[in-house]
């Protein structure tokens, strides 16, 4: 079984990744980290850097978790790309990060998170980023 973690280099992305790796270690599952974006993602601040890749692999190794990393750039929304990846790897769980939002913001959750929660075939865990 595989846990899929949505990752962008942000506090929310790191929170999702940490949860996914720890959950995988507990369950004895692998993790696939997906960094998805639309269009020219290499110029985006949402794209993973080589340092992000190295940190993820080091943390997974420390926990004894097998990790795969996918960078997906396409015409579809990042949420659609993430959902397709979850189906492709037969994910048992999808983990996404959440920025802390106001009461109104919580009702109007981001469009990517809403698309994932509304359309995922798998259970979805939303992890709140720590406040800084």
UniProtKB/TrEMBL annotation:
SUPFAM superfamilies xref list: Adenine nucleotide alpha hydrolases-like
Gene3D superfamilies: HUPs
Residue intervals of the UspA domain: 2-128
InterPro entries: Rossmann-like_a/b/a_fold, Universal_stress_UspA, UspA
Pfam families: Usp
Family: Belongs to the universal stress protein A family.
Name used for this protein in its record: Universal stress protein
The organism of origin for this protein: Nocardioides cavernae
Lineage: Bacteria, Bacillati, Actinomycetota, Actinomycetes, Propionibacteriales
